[in-house]
Design goal:
The structure is a homodimer.
Chain A: H1 2-9, H2 20-32, E1 41-42, H3 44-51, H4 55-68, E2 71-74, E3 78-81, H5 86-110, H6 113-130, H7 134-139, H8 141-156, H9 162-179, H10 187-205, H11 209-230
Chain A binds a DNA duplex through helix 4.
DNA sequence: TCTCTTTCTACTTTCGAAAATATGTGTATC
DNA sequence: GATACACATATTTTCGAAAGTAGAAAGAGA
């Protein structure tokens, strides 16, 4: 979470050498997008070559990912990709919905003009991809993931509770892993999400906390159920 | 969280060399017990000497502590002890109470004989310290912290939601930092907590979820309010 | 005197080799 | 054939040195 923000701000860095921060996010991204199977061992020899970093740097990244719940670690036996399960998806979904609803309520209560403006901005960025025809959307899927995160984060950014935002982000990141299985969703789905995001933005800007809350619940539950069916 | 459990199971390890796991928990313990002031820079040169580990190992520990929220990190500028504030204490308390109440409810619904037995066992271990006169309690404060954690964890251990337990543990660990300021509490406080823990155990074993829930709320809220007043 | 550049110092960050640990293989013994 | 032991290999874990950076101090030009 902390690292996520920093990685985002440092994307215009000098250039050249990969760096540890970068290895961390690339590794996380590879786990989220199922490049590595759940339960698979992440050997240092292979990983250092793949991400072009030393063992120390890699270990730090893996260690952090274990705190975030993406990998498991057993002392002396190395790191593995954390398992996924239907039960876990259900649990994560419940926690995320509860946290997101509380956060958006707080944000609506405390948000100012900057908050509103940023929501409109990132929603536009998101809609630029979601409005695209199916094939084009698929091609830019990783960009969509990023913008989708930005949009949902913008909605709750004005929430003053730092820990609420932190716990929320943890659950959101975990959901990303499961969201990935619906990548190859039927054609109609993208259009539906497009509309849901628009309505969610409008309800939030209208400061209708109850409506926004309900839309979030339905929006997330729907995505999760779809993922659950494909698992 | 994950690391905490492992450290606990590995306490009967061979002996000798400090090791990275150990450095991590000693560092966390030093932050919790305010050996280092909030906002203070944690320089590698000093820390490697203090904990007798290499820079890589130390970095891994600090990195993990930043995920847990005990230290902050700014790229290129190193690590600092995370700040504390009254606002944060209030927020963490609210989250912890909500999570703990849900977890104990689940535990009561799912717990079996082993769960009950373990609660009785660790409560006894805790009461051995809490029953002591004031001075003796003070001397064994770090043991009390450990046993207090064990007791509260035992109450919710039968909760099937792994993420609920995980989030709960995060908040509990954060509260430890604030709990420490009440270490030098008036004489009567220890006796009161002794009784509260006993009642909490009894309500849980009687499977009275509502009662246990209320006791938890009062128990935690009381401690937090006391800490808040001293902050 | 002020500001901009340069140099120097303290510190962080990264790497690859060495030490410690686990796993697998073969051999002897019952 | 099964079990225990010793050795060899694979893998993790740790360390200290080298490279890279940020911030302070010193110096040059206006």
């Amino acid at each position: 979470m902390t690292s996520r923000d920093e990685a985002a701000t440092a994307d215009a860095s000098p250039s050249g050498s990969s760096g540890g921060r970068d290895a961390l996010s690339r590794l996380r991204s590879d786990i989220v997008s199922s490049v590595f199977e759940p339960e698979m061992r992440l050997k240092f020899a292979e990983m250092t070559k793949r991400y072009d970093v030393g063992v120390g740097t890699l270990r730090e990244a893996l260690s952090q990912l274990s705190s975030e719940g993406f990998v498991t670690v057993e002392a002396g036996k190395g790191f593995r990709v954390a398992p996924v399960s239907a039960e876990e998806l259900v649990e994560i979904t419940d926690h995320f919905i509860a946290l997101e609803k509380r956060a958006v309520r707080e944000a609506i209560a405390h948000g100012g003009e900057d908050w509103e403006t940023h929501i409109v901005a990132v929603h536009h960025r998101l809609s630029l991809i979601e409005g695209l025809p199916w094939e084009a959307r698929m091609e830019r899927h990783s960009e969509w993931v990023e913008r989708h995160r930005e949009f949902h984060h913008a909605l709750v950014a004005a929430c003053p509770g730092r820990w609420l935002l932190r716990l929320r982000s943890m659950m959101f990141d975990q959901l990303d892993r499961y969201r990935f299985v619906t990548k190859k969703a039927p054609e109609g789905l993208g259009r539906k999400k497009f509309e849901e995001h628009r309505l969610l933005m409008l309800a939030t800007l209208e400061r209708d906390a109850d409506k926004a809350s309900d839309l979030i619940e339905a929006h997330i539950r729907d995505t999760s159920d779809r993922a659950l069916a494909m698992l």
